[in-house]
Write a structure and sequence with these properties.
Length: 145
C-alpha cells in the first residue's frame, strides 16, 4: 500500500498534523502530486484550517496546475484573509496565467518568456523562490520550499 493510499483511508482528525507533515516531506522531495493528495486529505479532515488549503495550493502550483492552485489559494484566503504567504502565492499564480496578446509582445520587450500567441509571465520555477526559501503558512506552521 502506498503512502497516498494510507492517507486516503485516514478518517480521524487527530491524524491531520501527521498527514500534513507527510505532504510537506513529499513536496520537498518533488513529489507534488502525492503531496497534493496529502494536503487535500488535510482539507477534508479539517475544512476550517487555512494551512491545508495554502499548502495544497503550493503543491498544485509547483505541479503546474495553476487553476487548482488559484482555487486552493482562494480557499485558504477565505479562511485567513490576511495571510501574506498565500496572498503572495496567489498573485504569482495569477501572473503566470496572464497571457498578453501578440500585439503587446513588442511593447513588453524582455518581460517573461515568449510563448506561442503572446508573452507569458515567468513560472514559479523562475521566480526568486529557491529551495531554502521560507514562507509562513499558518499561525505556528512554517513551510520551507
Amino acid at each position: 500500500m502506498t503512502d497516498v493510499e494510507v492517507v486516503e483511508r485516514v478518517s480521524d482528525k487527530t491524524w491531520e498534523p501527521a498527514v500534513f507533515n507527510l505532504g510537506q516531506a513529499l513536496r520537498r522531495m518533488g513529489r507534488y502530486g502525492e503531496a497534493a493528495a496529502c494536503f487535500a486529505r488535510c482539507c477534508s479532515l479539517d475544512p476550517g484550517s487555512h494551512a491545508g488549503y495554502s499548502a495544497l495550493g503550493l503543491a498544485r502550483h509547483l505541479d503546474g496546475d495553476l487553476d487548482g492552485a488559484i482555487d486552493s489559494y482562494h480557499e485558504a484566503l477565505s479562511r485567513k484573509p490576511e495571510d501574506p504567504f498565500t496572498s503572495e502565492m496567489l498573485q504569482r499564480a495569477l501572473a503566470e496565467v496572464v497571457t498578453y496578446p501578440p500585439a503587446m509582445e513588442g511593447l513588453l520587450g524582455g518581460v517573461g518568456g515568449a510563448v506561442p500567441g503572446g508573452v507569458r509571465a515567468g513560472g514559479i520555477g523562475s521566480s526568486i523562490l529557491g529551495p531554502a526559501a521560507t514562507g509562513r503558512v499558518g499561525d505556528d506552521v512554517e513551510m520551507t520550499f
